[in-house]
Amino acid sequence: MADYREKARERVKKRCKVCPVCNGKACAGQIPGMGGTGSGMSFQNNLTALAAWRILPRYLHKADNPDTSVELWGQRLSLPVLAAPIGNVVANVGSDMPTEKYTALLIRGCREARTIAAFGDTPQIDPVIKNFAEVGDNGAMTIPFFKPWAPEDLVSRLDMAAGHGCVACGVDVDAAGFPAFRQASRTYGVRSGRDIEKLVGMAHARGMKFIVKGIMALSDARIAVDCGVDSLIVSNHGGRSIDCTPGTAEVLPVIADAVGDRILIMADGGVRTGVDVLRMLALGARLTLVCRPVAVALHGDEENGVRLYFEDLQRELVDAMRLTGCTNVASIDREVLCRA
Q: Across the strands, what pairs with 232?
C-alpha cells in the first residue's frame, strides 16, 4: 500500500496530495480537486463525526470467524462496501487517464474484489456513453449515478443503464448547486418529491432499483421513502456540495432510527478503514461507500490497487468484528459503540 500511494501521489499531484490521513485539511476549498467546498469543514466533519464514536470491544463470545458478506439485489458481495462514483477524474482527481479508462479499471477491480463499482455523470452526454461502453455486460455489478437533471432529461441515461443490465441507478440530489451542471441546463437543480416519484417510476419501468444519494435531513429521508425510493444514501457529497454541514455519522443514526425499517440505508463520508465500516453499520447503514481512497489505490496500481484496497478493508473489518463479538454483518449494532 505504501508503494502504490507513492505512485498515486505522482500521478494525481495536480489535484490530490495523497495525505497520510485523507481528512480534507490540506485540500480545503480546492474545487475542482479533491477538497471540500469553502472552508472544507463539511469534508473534515465526516472524519471527526466518525471519530466521535469509540469501539467497545467484547472478547467473551464465539464470533471468531466473522462473515463479512452481504447480499444486495441478487448479488452476493464479499463485504458491505461499494466504490463510490466520480464523474470526471481528470478535473476532480487530477488524473492522467480519461474517465472511461478509470471506469473500466474500477469495474474490473471491484469485480475481482466481489463488490460493486459506482460511476458518475457529466454535463456532456459523450463521456456518459463512453462510460457505459466500459460497463459492457457487467451492469449487474455497476451502479450509475446521475446528477439531478429534470426527469425528462434523464430518459436517455436511464435507457443506457437498463440496456447494459444495471440492476440499479441513482441520482445525486446533493449536487444541485454545482455550477458547471447548472450552466449546462436550465432544468438542472433541486428536485421536488414529485420529480423523485417520476424518476422512481421511470427506473422501475426499466427493471431497475432507484437510489437517492445525498440525504442529510430526516425530512428528506421521509420524502424519499414516501416516493417509493428503493434505497437512500446518507451523504454530504464528500463535503463538496455545501460548506459547514454535519458529518454523515452525526445524522445517520437519526435517519436510521426513523426510517431504517422501511428502506435500505447506505452511507458514505470519511470511511477509511474496516473500523470505520463497522462504525457506519453500527450507526444504521446496511452498506457504505468509499471514494477517495479507492481512487488513490487505482492510480497507484492500475492492475491490483482496487482489489488490494478492498481486501485490506475486508481484513480490517474481520478483525473489528472478531474483537466486538459480531458473527456477521447483520449482527453489528450500536452496542459495539460508545460516545467519545
A: 212, 265
Alpha-carbon span 60 to 92, nearest angstrom? 46
Pick the CATH number of 2-17+29-339 from 3.90.1030.10, 3.30.460.10, 3.40.50.300, 3.20.20.70: 3.20.20.70
Q: Are 249 and 283 in contact (CB under 8 A)?
A: yes
| CA–centroid distance for 153 within its chain | 24
Q: Is the pLDDT of residue 220 over 90?
A: yes
**Distances 199 to 74, 92, 151, 185, 194 between C-alpha atoms, Å:** 22, 27, 6, 18, 9
SS3 for 172?
Answer: strand
Roughly how many angstroms between the first and final C-alpha of the chain, as a whole number?
30
Name the pLDDT band for 150 (thresholds 50, 70, 90): very high
Please give the Cα distance from 44 to 23 (Å, whole number): 6
Torsion of CA 124, 128, 133, 138, to 10 degrees: 180
Say if CB 188 and CB 149 are below 8 A apart: yes
Whether the pLDDT of residue 1 is over 80: the answer is: no
